[in-house]
Amino acid sequence: MSETMIGVDNLTVRYGDNSVVKNCSFAVHEGESFGLVGESGSGKSTILRAIVGLVSDWSGSITVAGLDPHKTGRKQLARTVQMVFQDPYASLHPRYVIGHQIAEPMIINRIDNPQRRTAELLDLIGLPAAFQFRYPHELSGGQRQRVAIARALALSPRILLLDEPTSALDVSIQAEILNLLNRLRQELNLTFIIVSHDLAVVSYMCERLMVMRNAETVEILTRNQLRSGDISSAYTRSLLAAA
Amino acid sequence: MSKLVDIENLRIAFRTDEGGWKEAVRGVSFSLGREKLGIVGESGSGKSLTGRALLGVLPSYAKMSADKLSFDGIDLTSASPRLRRSLRGGRMGMILQDPKFSLNPVMRVDEQIIEAIRIGDRRMSRRDATKRAIETLEQVHIREPARVASLYPNELSGGMGQRVMIAMMLVREPDLLIADEPTSALDVTVRTQVMSILDELVTRRGMGLIFISHDLKLVSKFCDRVIVMYAGRIVETIAADRLHEATHPYTQGLLSCMPTVDGPLEPLPILQREASWA
């Protein structure tokens, strides 16, 4: 198969004396969708934040498309990997119009013609171009999450890190966003890491997944192993039973 | 079975920019005994407003009317604000969706629970109230309840915060509990735990529970009956164990658009809304 896009080796993140991620290792191939599953506080989101450079106090090694987040400048890292957060109500600026929010990363990175690209991005995520003049409060939750995805794609990253992308949305809207993400991954050859506590979503979206508990890896499974019940840990089984 | 709640033709409207009124709840009627009733629908379907109307915490600019709105024989449409205040928190409790916005950020957990206890029972000593608060935290499966009791809300995870909220409501042992998306912010495993706590409490105390959620499957697992709302109306009422026999296309659409662990990998069916449903 293809090359490794994200490599995490022996990652440990400490907040004070408290280890929130302990010795985690996994690799994600180019074009793959990888799931992180576990309860609140198990360290899933912290791993994403370390990869994208939002947490810098960690030990071990991370490579993102060949780059080390510790040694890479913010701008270059931002062009490689982007993150979409759980709550589309909190992740958009309430006083900026949509078009401005999508264009801002391009302006910061001095990319030519951000207006035209903004219209293209809106089209890509399935919103009319006229939406660029609207404010976030004029959009529904699902539309806002689409905007957050468009902004994440503005710098044409190769990797999207999705932190519970649909758990704040209605189930009917969740289906639309999941379909959109799958289409984008195919069209743009993106690599995904999806954090979710919903095993059904992860089983639908991801080829492989890692189960975490209390900051540690429980096991790494393929989708087929998950679906056929080829599971070694009792914890994963209990998650599956609850789903 | 005596009726704990009886609602007939409930309507709630908000003023539009043009000066007219737009109805967000349009003629909802149902009654509730000592049972678990689920109300399911999307954002904007009017499910939360219905719960809030019952509790009497609608915003002041909302216009509400009902042919009947009663709680345990008390007519709520004509009840004094004083009476309604005494019902809230005491005989009717509400659990909201997001603990981040519902807990007081500058009060320790135990203080908040003790406050809830002492509003109901002013004679209880501080020591007893503290003990009671910690017991209640234990009941909602919080490990090391004594330690958690001394934390501030920002030091809690979302799941813990929500369990603290539930503890605050449970401590008064209300007759009716309105739970508005109580587990949407929680993990699946914790969710099951929280639901079984609610389930146990409701069954043991013979309480009534109104469980508001957009998760049809979760609701059907824990409730006796399910009301499906769409655009301010009830489109279907079904027994929870007969959900698969749902006839309304909206209910069927809600059921089929969810991914499952062993389901197909094709694009998920998208709910197609029809104007005739509204």
Commentary on this structure:
The complex is a heterodimer of chains A (243) and B (278). Chain A is an alpha/beta fold and 243 residues long. Chain A has a single domain, classed as 3-Layer(aba) Sandwich (Rossmann fold), CATH 3.40.50.300. Helices cover 37% and strands 27% of the residues of chain A. In chain A, the strands form two sheets. Chain A has a six-stranded mixed beta sheet, sandwiched between helices. A three-stranded antiparallel beta sheet of chain A has the order 2-1-4, with helices on one face. The model of chain A has no long low-confidence stretch (mean pLDDT 92). Chain B is of the alpha/beta class. Chain B has two domains: 188 residues, Rossmann fold (3-Layer(aba) Sandwich), CATH 3.40.50; 75 residues, no CATH class. In chain B, the strands form two sheets. Chain B has a six-stranded mixed beta sheet, sandwiched between helices. In chain B, strand 8, helix 8 and strand 9 form a beta-alpha-beta unit. Chain B is globular and about 60 Å long. Classes of the chains: A alpha/beta (243), B alpha/beta (278). At the A-B interface, helix 6, helix 7 and helix 9 of A face helix 7 and helix 8 of B.
Q: What are the SSEs and their pairings?
A:
The complex is a heterodimer of chains A (243) and B (278).
Chain A: E1 4-15, E2 18-29, E3 33-38, H1 44-52, E4 58-64, H2 74-80, E5 81-84, H3 98-108, H4 114-124, H5 141-153, E6 159-163, H6 171-188, E7 191-196, H7 199-205, E8 208-213, E9 216-222, H8 223-228, H9 234-242
Parallel strand pairs in A: 3-7, 3-8, 5-6, 6-7
Antiparallel strand pairs in A: 1-2, 1-4, 8-9
Chain B: E1 5-15, E2 21-32, E3 36-40, H1 47-55, E4 63-65, E5 68-71, E6 74-75, H2 81-87, E7 92-95, H3 99-102, H4 109-120, H5 126-139, H6 145-149, H7 158-170, E8 176-180, H8 188-205, E9 208-213, H9 216-222, E10 225-230, E11 233-239, H10 249-256
Parallel strand pairs in B: 3-9, 3-10, 7-8, 8-9
Antiparallel strand pairs in B: 1-2, 1-4, 1-5, 5-6, 10-11
Helix pairs in contact in B: 4-5, 4-7, 5-7
